[in-house]
Amino acid sequence: EKLVIATHNPGKLREISALIEPLGFVCVGAEELRLPEPEEIGNTFADNADLKAREAADLSGFPALADDSGLCVEALHGMPGIFSARWAEDSEGKRDWMRAMEKVWDEVQATEPDAAPAAHFTCVLSLAWPNDGQTEAFEGRVDGTLVWPPRGDKGFGYDPMFVPVGYDQTFGELEPELKHGISHRADAFRKLVSALKP
Ligand code: ITT
Predict the structure, then answer these.
(1) Of 47, 50, 58, 68, which one is the catalytic site residue?
(2) Which of 70, 89, 115, 148 is the most buried (most CB within 10 A)?
(3) Closest protein CA for atom 8 of ligand 1
(4) C-beta separation of 159 from 87 below 8 A
């Protein structure tokens, strides 16, 4: 069965495909279908995940799965949160993850200096069927602490500065298979799978 993965982020596409392909779905990315990137006008992860899934399902005619996610730092009252991707953008909209990580670290040290600030990743996965207006959303989370300087090049986004609870290595250093087992995305995915089981 064909499922559109409604993301333009290659890191997410890789992780979602790894989670979902064992279930027998054929995943096709939004870029491959040349779907436009909708403007994320929602105020919550769930609203943004729903709007991305809805648009991809309606435009493609296939069920679509979207992921809205981000890094929430406790000392920053949950920021950057839904603005996680936007914190990486320069004035031309080009993303630079080192710049985003630096901004997070500098803001935390300016607010509440701490060698290991508490943070979590949140992920909302939303599944939409074409043309029937229905979406279903599932939220996952992983807790951890931030480190400086960033370490490792295995993940994407903020992974090099995030150490999940119970580990010493960052998501940038841990093996992808391990991240896929404990991440916010894996947590949301488990909820999605149990809801879809008859
Ligand atoms: P799409 O909307 O096309 O899916 P995006 O990158 O714009 O891609 P978001 O608006 O959801 O997606 O932004 C989420 C950002 O949060 C993302 O760009 C990452 O930097 C960060 N993020 C989410 N999950 C992450 C993870 O597992 N590891 C590291 N950073 C993550």
Answers:
(1) 68
(2) 70
(3) 9
(4) no
